[in-house]
Amino acid sequence: MYPEIEIELMLSDRLANLAEEGLDIAVRISNRHDQALSTRFLTHSRTVICAAPSYLNQLGMPKIPIDLTKHNCLRYTSAEHGHDWVLRDADGKAHRVPIKGSLSCNNGDALVAAAVAGTGLVLQPYFLVADELADGRLVQLLSSYKTKQFSVQLVTIPTARPRADIAKLSDFLFEAMRPAKY
Fold this sequence. Notes:
- By secondary structure, the chain is of the alpha+beta class.
- It has a domain of 105 residues: Periplasmic binding protein-like II (D-Maltodextrin-Binding Protein, domain 2, 3-Layer(aba) Sandwich).
- 24% of the residues lie in helices and 29% in strands.
- Strands 1, 2, 3, 6, 7, 8 and 9 form a seven-stranded mixed beta sheet that branches.
- It is elongated.
- It starts with 17 loop residues before the first helix and ends in a 5-residue tail after the last helix.
């Protein structure tokens, strides 16, 4: 759409410091709000617990949250509560479950790949597992319980004079993600 705009894309699961790293804009999946940055809400991203059918065939399907303690849970190390998964029942009651597993990683894509390979259960944003759920490589678990939801937001450093290229990218991402069910 805008061939004159040049993009250098950097991918990371860590919270980058825009000013220190010379970044113009970032997409953050977080519930944190940095008062020093301009923030534009894009959408929400829910998380889901899932596993490969091969794993479930061997170790069974968890029926209630406490059953997670009997499973190999793949931990996302950048999560606020990486050693616990919190699920809410239909009444809104929180069930905090201490989890253990053979793999901890700071990258969701790597954890999803491990889950697809049958290594264990994974709790990740829906957008990271949507294709695997759709084609049956992963199965959603404990779907009657709600897990954490995050805001997907664009953040920029406030400037006296807005840049047209940043504004166009911001508008494009806003329109592209607005109807999404992540």
